[in-house]
Structure formats: structure tokens, C-alpha cells
Amino acid sequence: MTISNLFRLLTTGVALTFGLTAIAEGNASTNNDAVEEVFAPKYVKLVQTPTKVDLTLSDGQTLSLPQYKKVEKTYPFSASLNDQLNIKTNFKKQTLKNKLAEQNEIKLLSKKLQIDSIDVNYIDFYREIANWLGTRYCLGSMSQNAVDCSGFTKIIYSTVFNKDIPRTSHDMSNSLTQTLSVDQLLPGDLVFFATRGKKHINHVGMYIGEGNFVHASIKGVKISSLSEGYYHNTWRKAGRIETESL
């Protein structure tokens, strides 16, 4: 070995290694649960020590060279590769699971509310009114045991939209901040009817989409169509109430 080769061997700078450690007892197992692979990215650094190495050359001369030692270090990763992969995999699985659950819920709500398309931006509104379907009607009541049209509307606005609106359908109609045509309505907008005369508004419902609305009729909380003869004839107006949140 020449002096230059020896010196090069002793003074090599930094060597990098990446260790993949398998933790298992006994012989290697094919059971994935029995082996935990931890990604440990490491590097080996040659560090000069105070000790000198004296070498005697063929011509009798003595050459004094510094001695180096190998120091193994681990990169400061916050988590093993295995942990990182598990986190990503679990996140994707949970996201997919949530997405499938949401799609299934939308399908069920669509069927229950008799509309083909559910706007996910109003999913809380759809969920809440679906829970009220079938509640019996009782004038002046405001509970899921019994409710009237304006009481039902007021409860939904408070629960879903966090808004306080008037108690009666007549006062609600007078509190509109926007009067809208049917094609401008969004889920939750109010629709008004005069079932006892041409002018006096005495019934209110909430638009849900596709020309349908939810309301507490004398037959209980149900879904009806604006094009239905009775409601088409008693229709008065529709709109939106913009209020401060509770």
C-alpha cells in the first residue's frame, strides 16, 4: 500500500448510510405483525482523535499520521418512515371512509326528502329537516312532539342557521331582506302562502330545492311541491331573511 492510499483511507471525509432495521426475535418470520420495520436514516462520520499513528517506511523513515474513529449518527426525523407511511395510509383510508359515508348519507337524504340532488353546503339543513319529517301538527306548539308551521321554521333557523327570526309566518314575511323569485331560491329560503284568503299570509315553509319545500302542514311535517295545485294557488311570495347570528 502506498503512503497516499493509506493517507486517503485514514482521512476519508464523511460516509453516508441509510439503515433499515428489522426488529424481531429469533428467526425471521413471514408474519408481517411479527416484524416491525423502522426506517432509521443514519450517517457515519470520521472524526479525528488526538492519537497519532506512527508508521515506519521501507527506507526507515517514520511517518506520523492522525488517527480517526467512526461515529454513527442518526438524522433527526420526527417519525420513522414506517410511522409516516402508516399515518398517510390511515389518513387516506379514513378520508375514503368518510367520503363513502357522506355519499351514502346523501343518497338516503335524497330519497327521504324527494329531491335528486343534495347540496353538501346545506347538509346540516337537510339532516335536521329529515329528522322532523312526520312530526304531528299542533297550532302554537314548538317541539318534536308537535309543531306548527312558523314554530318549525323558527326552530330550524335557530338550530341550523343560528338565526333568530320572528315567531309568526306573517311577521316573517314582513321581515324579508330580499324578495326572490322561485328560480332564485336556495335551500332554507322562505316560501309564503295565504291559505285563508288572498292577502293575509298565514303559512310558511322552507325551500329545499327542485321546486320542493318542507313545512308543517295540518298533516304534519312533510315535503310538498310548489307546483302542486293547492300551493300553486295559495302562493304569495318568497325570500330571504338576513339577520345577525345568535
Question: What does this molecule look like?
Answer:
- 30% of the residues lie in helices and 30% in strands.
- It has helices at residues 3-10, 81-113, 123-132, 149-160, 169-174, 229-234, and strands at 14-23, 36-56, 62-74, 178-179, 190-193, 203-209, 212-217, 220-225, 235-240.
- The strands form 2 sheets. Strands 4-9-5-6-7-8 form a 6-stranded antiparallel β-sheet. It has a 3-stranded antiparallel β-sheet with strand order 1-2-3, covered by helices on one side.
- It is built from 6 helices and 9 strands, in the order αβββααααβββββαβ.
- It folds into 3 domains: 3-77, no CATH class; 79-113; 121-240, endopeptidase domain like (from Nostoc punctiforme) (endopeptidase fold (from Nostoc punctiforme), Alpha-Beta Complex).
- It is α+β, with helices and mostly antiparallel strands and 246 residues long.
Q: Tell me the β content.
A: 25-35%
Report how far apart the termini are: 87 Å
Largest sheet: 6 strands, antiparallel
- The gyration radius over C-alpha positions equals 38 Å
Structural class label: alpha+beta
What is the architecture of the largest domain at the second tier of CATH?
Alpha-Beta Complex
The percentage helix is: 25-40%
Q: What's the helix count?
A: 6
